[in-house]
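**User:** You know discrete backbone vocabularies at least as well as I do. Would you mind producing a protein record, from residues through to fold? Write it directly below this note and I will take it from there.

**Assistant:**
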Amino acid sequence: MSSGARAHALILAAEQLRTGTEAILAANALDLEAGKASGLAPAMLDRLKLDEARLEGIASAVEAVANLDDPVGQVIDQSERPNGLKLSRVRVPIGTIGIIYESRPNVTADAAALCVRAGNAAILRGGSEAVHTNRAIHGALIAGLTTGGVPSEAVQLIPTQDRAAVGAMLSAAGLIDMIVPRGGKGLVARVQADARVPVLAHLDGICHTYIHASADPDMAREVALNAKMRRPGICGAMETLLIDTQFSDSSALVAALLDSGCALRGDARARSLDTRITPANAEDWDTEYLEAVLSVAIVDGMEDALAHISRHSSGHTDVIIADDTNAAAQFLNEVDSAIVMHNASSQFADGGEFGLGAEIGIATGRLHARGPVALEGLTTYKWLVRGSGQARP
């Protein structure tokens, strides 16, 4: 299909999501009811929940993807050899992409839109927590896509919640070209251990915010509160706060977090700031809470902060709050995470916020794609070689 045809089909899909609002929200209510009955954690329920505003956000994200520049056919670079051969590298779709995810129904729409825009087919396997919602969203998407000329087989939703289906996807080398897992550490670990298909891993978000000695106290407080409490259940939420021992307003900072309803677990020096902070154990520094719980440590300067992040970061997103531009430059240069920020909330770690329209995940590895994976990350390239009769001597 042409780029314009794929884009038009996605616009039609977004329209169908809006038309189907009532049915999608009714399906979501069934999933929420089942989730509450089964004791699903509050963070998971928040990820699962849709309302009219969130569903409009999903539809708008599909439209935004449709309006993005198409990477397929883009010439990455080109050159001419001394023998006259003309070489170019051109972006092409990866092929068939399998997405295995848990309770976020927006992934159904985001993944489908991104795959279609970049010329890929998608096989979606959502979690049982969102089964009704995923089916409703998928039905709306297919209604729009097929009206626009996209074959219904191009975006398939696995029709069973049997875990054997996941095993079948992971062993489908030669049929599925790449697997993208989106979910908790257990899901990603299983996919990485069992897959016979290349995996683009979206690991847990153990995100740090380091409050440097030079940080503006008001900025530090505002950014820290947002990084943790805006939506504690997303992968970009801050999970560890590092406070420089020379920062001037440490007590007020932790008090603001505690007063907002966040439980703090700290080392001995952090606990001396406020009696409400409970002791942290060794596991806390490596825990993605996904709720209003935060680990806090006092560090002796930049080197101590960098060492802590090196030991405990999951490589997702790490932040420094500092007025000292040299300190910020050192942090940005030396922290080896997919996303490193200066004076901004880690909750901006999102494909939409990066201007990518949507994302299929935050890749924390070092190969192929890193950070928010959107259209470019769903393409590979091939070499085109144009000659005029050259034969190799």
Notes: The chain has two domains: 3-203+365-385, 207-348. Residues 9 and 149 are 7 Å apart (CA to CA). The mean pLDDT is 94.
